[in-house]
Amino acid sequence: MPRTSRHPTATVQLSKVRIKEDLRRRLEQAAKQNHVPLNGEIVGRLERTFEQTILLDINQTVENVYRYMHPLVAGGGDLKRENELIGAARGLINRIEPLLAARVIGGPEAEAMRRAIEQVYLAIKAIDNEAVQRARRVGAAS
């Protein structure tokens, strides 16, 4: 008989998970400090690793966007590249904001993300202002 699929929120029991005794002791100690059962400590730590992976990816992307946008803001740049970077930045923000709203990202990380988004919007505004100034200079030179 084929196995039926489980609902994503169903709780299942894993068996045959093996860990070293030292790790079990450390987990047990952490569980006591956090006032949760050992299972709760293990599950919580596993869930946080997925959140941390998302945060690392997002942080790296934000850093890359800033790294590439900063020279454009500081020294100008070509319009096509500016538009590509602005599109990429907006795409990134569109991916991050739902995670913040759903509280997938919380605490200090969420605040750091909100500040980074603010900085990206400020950089986009500066690029837009520079583009307007360039257009005026070109129009005045004609």
Question: Would you kindly provide a brief summary of this structure?
Answer:
This protein has 142 residues and is an all-alpha fold. It has helices at residues 21-34, 38-75, 79-101, 107-141. The chain has a domain at 52-141.
Q: Overall 3D geometry? A: elongated
- What about the largest sheet? none
List the uncertain runs: none
Secondary-structure element series = HHHH
Overall pLDDT: 79
Notes on the protein architecture:
This protein is mainly alpha-helical. It has a domain at 52-141. It is 77% helix and 0% strand. The chain contains 4 helices and no strands. It has helices spanning 21-34, 38-75, 79-101, 107-141. Helix 1 (21-34) crosses helix 2 (38-75), helix 2 (38-75) runs antiparallel to helix 3 and helix 2 runs parallel beside helix 4. It starts with 20 loop residues before the first helix and ends with a helix. 8% of the residues are buried.
Task: For this entry, give a set of tags.
142 residues, mainly alpha, 4 helices, 77% helix, 0% strand, elongated
Can you lay out the helices and strands and say which pair or pack?
Elements lengths: L20 H14 L3 H38 L3 H23 L5 H35 L1
